[in-house]
């Protein structure tokens, strides 16, 4: 049944641009980008048990990489800028991971946050790429192979399908990896790292590899986001996004790949509807939407420890017990 | 750098470090004793600063605003513990981080609704708005010395309470073995509540006394929080001694990092990059002792 649901929603996503308006298509593009990002975080959070509070750093890094790789008033090539930007994120994850993976528990949370904020302030305080205002990518990357151009990134429908393709590929990559012995070792590390080490697995290297892969996939999402909006700013590296990502993964259910994608959709739609709240009693609720988001986060963590997947599970159990 | 410039920077660094200690010691105590990581701790630094601005204007006196502000933050702390934090004791750190992150959003937006998003200033109280002349052109403000003195006094008081009093003994015992202390007939829940409220009040106090020398602005709490995390990673989670050492270290490194760049004008490094030195320090400590200088080895 689960497989049928995935196939059905995939078919719906493929058909959406045929019926949807421009606004809807762009929202779903954004949601799919966040889904890629949330899945990459779940590799750390749900499978390996590494609670990263700085995952946005790798998302923003690839976006900044594209901005810096794009020559002024000219287009970068998609075929070189895409792998280079993802490689930038992976390289950053390798450096940060080298330091953070040796810590555990609460230290890991604090250290990942601190390094991500370091990067945030690097771009916020200095003039490397537009400072706190961010930087515009004037011309989108061009995906030409010789004279043939398979897709045009200035066209929002093409961007949508490129993002959808990336989502499917990221999902397939992560799923294959997690079913391979490599993924089993990661799960083993989450359950009991000492045992894995005494079985002879170099857990440091496994965790570092996992951190780098998650960073690279986050880089894919960051690159796509920079392409979609043509603007990159320090907020893309900031801890508000990192925290939102953790919430997406928890809402959808940790330790699954479909869950975080659903969580991302719920979070983005909630954010969108809260932002469009009307004014009332002299207070602009839409402007102060984060008040409601904060209350939602507090209540969700108190009441839904297993996310919405937990509700589904409880319902299923009740159904079984009912008859 | 001549002697007086050096002296001024040294005093500034120590003052900044001691202020950091006030915020980070509460954070580290709450974790060490209650096992709670409170990401919203920095918000109370922000709330303290805004209270100092608001109350000082209300009462027309910084000296009345100070005790009222401390009492208010402590009350908020007590209420927060009773309503929400209490439910987090047995939860994973991940949920503690997320829930308290949600609180940050609530606090920031409430602040925005009540007091707006403008940058505010607080006047240095008249009794302390003097400067000690050092040379013909250089002088040092008395208010900054007063900040350092207050912080040292609070640190001394904290040491005395934790090490020399019955309450401190219970707190330390409670952090080592909660069930045992409870079995001896002591209300651990009450002790936790006191510790949490005290930690919050310390952050509020830091924000209040810092308000006259630094601007009062939205998001100031989050900036401090991140630096406090660095302090705790360096000093070791749960260690007050470590928090003191690391706070001073960070205060000095940050202050001198900025000046040295300005002095060495020929060097091609951007002065803004001086804020990176703090994180560099953290990276070095992580390689050397991942659990912090005074942290307990797992």
Please state the structural category of chain A: mainly alpha
Q: Please report the number of helical segments of chain A.
A: 13
Q: Using the CA coordinates, give the radius of gyration of chain B.
A: 20 Å
How many helices of chain B does DSSP assign?
Answer: 11
Please tell me the overall pLDDT of chain A: 87
Number of strands of chain A: 4
Strand arrangement within the widest β-sheet of chain A reads: 1-2
Helix content estimate of chain A? over 70%
> Any idea of the CATH topology of chain A?
ABC transporter involved in vitamin B12 uptake, BtuC
The dominant shape of chain B is globular
What is the CA-CA span between the terminal residues of chain B?
Answer: 44 Å
Q: Unreliable segments of chain B (pLDDT under 50, ≥5 consecutive)? A: none
Strand arrangement within the widest β-sheet of chain B reads 1-2
Report the count of strand segments of chain B: 2
Oligomeric assembly? heterodimer
Biggest interface? A-B, 41 and 44 residues
Mean pLDDT of chain B: 86
Give the amount of beta strand of chain A, in percent: under 5%
Number of domains of chain A: 1
Radius of gyration of chain A: 20 Å
The CATH class label of chain A is: Mainly Alpha
Description of the structure:
The complex is a heterodimer of chains A (323) and B (298). Chain A is built from 13 helices and four strands. With 323 residues, chain A is mainly alpha-helical. In chain A, the strands form two sheets. Chain A has a two-stranded antiparallel sheet. In chain A, helix 2 packs parallel to helix 6 and helix 2 (22-48) runs antiparallel to helix 9. The longest helix of chain A is centred in the N-terminal third of the chain and has 27 residues, at 22-48. Chain A is globular, with a radius of gyration of 20 Å. With 298 residues, chain B is mainly alpha-helical. Chain B has a domain at 12-219. Helices cover 71% and strands 2% of the residues of chain B. Chain B has a two-stranded antiparallel sheet. Chain B is globular, with a radius of gyration of 20 Å. The model of chain B has no long low-confidence stretch (mean pLDDT 86). Chains A and B meet through helix 5, helix 10 and helix 12 of A and helix 4, helix 9 and helix 11 of B.
């Amino acid at each position: 049944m689960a497989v049928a649901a995935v196939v059905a929603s995939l078919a719906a996503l493929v058909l959406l641009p045929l019926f949807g308006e421009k606004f809807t298509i762009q929202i779903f593009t954004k949601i799919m980008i966040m889904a890629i990002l949330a899945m990459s975080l779940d590799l750390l959070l749900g499978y390996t048990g590494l609670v990263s509070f700085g995952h946005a750093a790798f998302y923003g890094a690839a976006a900044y990489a594209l901005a810096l790789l794009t020559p002024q008033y000219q287009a970068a090539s998609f075929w070189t800028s895409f792998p280079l930007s993802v490689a930038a994120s992976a390289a950053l994850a390798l450096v940060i991971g080298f330091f953070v993976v040796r810590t555990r528990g609460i230290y890991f949370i604090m250290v990942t946050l601190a390094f991500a904020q370091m990067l945030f302030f690097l771009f916020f305080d200095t003039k490397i790429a537009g400072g706190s205002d961010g930087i515009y990518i004037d011309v989108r990357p061009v995906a030409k192979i010789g004279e043939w151009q398979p897709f045009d990134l200035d066209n929002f429908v093409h961007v949508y399908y490129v993002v959808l393709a990336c989502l499917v590929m990221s999902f397939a990559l992560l799923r294959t990896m997690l079913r391979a012995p490599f993924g089993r070792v990661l799960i083993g590390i989450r359950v009991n790292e000492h045992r894995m080490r005494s079985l002879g697995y170099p857990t440091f290297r496994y965790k570092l590899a996992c951190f780098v892969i998650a960073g690279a996939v986050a880089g894919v999402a960051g690159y796509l986001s920079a392409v979609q909006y043509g603007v990159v700013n320090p907020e893309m590296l900031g801890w508000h996004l990192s925290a939102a990502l953790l919430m997406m993964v928890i809402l959808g259910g940790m330790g699954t790949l479909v869950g975080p994608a659903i969580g991302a959709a719920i979070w983005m739609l909630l954010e969108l509807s809260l932002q469009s709240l009307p004014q009332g009693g002299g207070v602009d609720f839409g402007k102060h939407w984060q008040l409601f988001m904060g209350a939602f986060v507090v209540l969700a963590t108190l009441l839904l420890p297993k996310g919405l997947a937990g509700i589904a599970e409880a319902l299923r159990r009740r159904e079984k017990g009912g008859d | 750098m001549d002697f007086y410039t050096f002296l001024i920077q040294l005093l500034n660094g120590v003052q900044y470090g001691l202020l950091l200690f006030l915020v980070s010691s509460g954070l580290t105590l709450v974790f060490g004793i209650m096992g709670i990581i409170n990401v919203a701790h920095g918000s109370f630094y922000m709330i303290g600063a805004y209270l100092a601005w608001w109350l000082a204007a209300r009462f027309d006196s910084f000296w009345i605003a100070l005790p009222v502000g401390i009492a208010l933050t402590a009350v908020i702390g007590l209420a927060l513990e009773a309503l929400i934090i209490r439910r987090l004791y047995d939860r994973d750190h991940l949920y503690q981080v997320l829930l308290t992150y949600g609180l940050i959003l609530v606090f920031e937006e409430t602040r925005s609704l009540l007091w707006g998003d403008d940058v505010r200033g607080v006047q240095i109280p008249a009794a302390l708005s003097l400067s000690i002349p050092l040379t013909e052109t250089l002088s040092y403000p008395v208010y900054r010395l007063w900040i350092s003195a207050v912080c040292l006094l609070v640190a001394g008081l904290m040491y005395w309470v934790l090490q020399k009093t019955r309450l401190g003994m219970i707190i330390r015992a409670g952090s080592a073995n909660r069930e045992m202390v409870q079995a001896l007939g002591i209300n651990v829940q009450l002790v936790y509540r006191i510790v949490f409220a005290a930690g919050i009040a310390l952050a509020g106090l830091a924000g209040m006394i810092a308000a006259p020398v630094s601007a009062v602005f939205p998001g100031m709490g989050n900036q401090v929080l991140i630096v406090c995390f660095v302090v705790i990673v360096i000093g070791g989670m749960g260690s007050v001694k470590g928090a003191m050492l690391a706070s001073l270290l960070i205060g000095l490194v940050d202050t001198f990092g900025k000046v040295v760049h300005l002095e060495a004008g020929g060097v091609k490094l951007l002065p803004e990059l001086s804020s990176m030195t703090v994180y560099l320090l953290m990276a070095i400590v992580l390689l050397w002792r991942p659990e912090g200088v005074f942290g307990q080895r797992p």
